[in-house]
Structures are given as structure tokens and as C-alpha cells.
Give the backbone structure.
Amino acid sequence: MKTFLNLSIACLCIVVMLNVVAQETGIVRTERGFVESTTATYTVDPGGELNIDADFGSVRIETAATDKVEILIEKQRKEGTEGQVRRAFDEVEVTTEKQGNDVHIRVEHARWFKRNRMSIAMTVQVPYTYNLDIETAGGSIVIADLDGEIRAKTAGGSIRTGATQGDVNARTLGGSIRIGPTEGGVSAKTLGGSIIIGDAKGDVSAHTMGGSIRVGRTEGDLTAYTMGGNITVEAASGKVSAKTLGGKVRVGST
């Protein structure tokens, strides 16, 4: 009985390791300078959520017909000795974990950290049917075609998404926003950049403090506001509220 129990526990541990995570970290010197890579792989079911909470760093989301979330996070620094680079890399902690069917990534720097000459790039491949909740305090966000809902927020960088099947919520304090066609609705806001939104089945809200707004065909209600640029809407089936303080408004058939 004891032998059977020990064997069962060992088998369970193997299953957990195979289905949860395989993670590696290493530092090398390349043409780009010193690079420390963290990789992790999690087995998931479609319909879960990827959550990224980063103090800084660019994010690229790729999708595929897969049952895995595959993560590559690269810290990069061009200048300094190997010792200086290692100390700088140590001041930025990268953690990944799986909770239920969701995967979480956290990038956190020390309070005394000085970001100069160091960058972080995150590339994550998720199942095509998956949801995203991404927030970075500095860096661009690029998202491939996705069957899921998207929340993307950055304090300094552009946001790009492909075609989506769910609602899209995009926020940036300093960059342009480009949203592909979606079966859901769109809420896009930037303090300094243009906004381009493809066709949308749901309601659309686009606000920018300094740039133009261009929207495809919308079936829901549309709200668009800019302080400095033109507003162009190809066609709108619902109610339209469009205002610009420094440009023209053109709305197609409604």
C-alpha cells in the first residue's frame, strides 16, 4: 500500500510538471549587447486569460492553434561591464505563474532602479481563443488576431491589435492606437496620438487630446473627440457624437 501511494504521488508530480511550467533563465552576450532571457511554458485550455503587470517593457502577443502559453522575456543592456549588467538585471524581477486556466506575468524593478540603457521585451504566444489583460508603465503593445477580450494599457507607447472577436479597451498616455476589425466594441483613449479603428459590431468610443481619428463601419453607437485633428467615419448605423476643436468631421452613411 505504501509503495502504491509513493508511486501515485510521484506520477502526480510528473503530470503537474509537464502540464504547468518549464522555466529557464540565462544571460548571454550578443550583437545587441548583454541579454538575459527568461522562458516559460504553461499548458492551458482555450478561454483563459493572460495577465501582464509590468513596471516597464514592450509587449508582443502572438496567437496560434495551441494549448500552451509560451513566454519569452528578454532584458537587454548595451553598455557596461558584465558585472554592472548583472547587477542591473538583478534589480528587475520577472515572475510567471499559472492560476487555474490563467497565466500571470509580473515585471517589477527595485525602488532605486535607474532604467537608463536597459530595456525589456516580452513576447508571449497564447491560444487563439484567449483573453488579455496587459498593463505596462512604459512600452509599446502589439497584439495579433485573437478570439477574446482585450484590455491593453501603457503609460508610454503605441498600441496595435489585429482582428478580434471580443471587446477591446486600449489606453495610452503617449502614443497612437490602431485597432483592427472586431466583432465587439472598442474603447480607445490616448493623450497624444492618432486613433484608427476598423469595422466594429459594438459601440465605439475614441478620445485623443492631440491627433486624428479614423473609424470604419460601426453598427453600435459612436463617440469621437479630439482636440487637434480630423474625425473620419466610413459609416455608422447607431447614434453618432463627434467633436473636434481643430479639424473637420466627416461621417458616411448612417
Summary: Residues 1-20 have pLDDT under 50 and may be disordered. The first helix runs from residue 2 to 20. The CA atoms of residues 221 and 238 lie 4 Å apart.
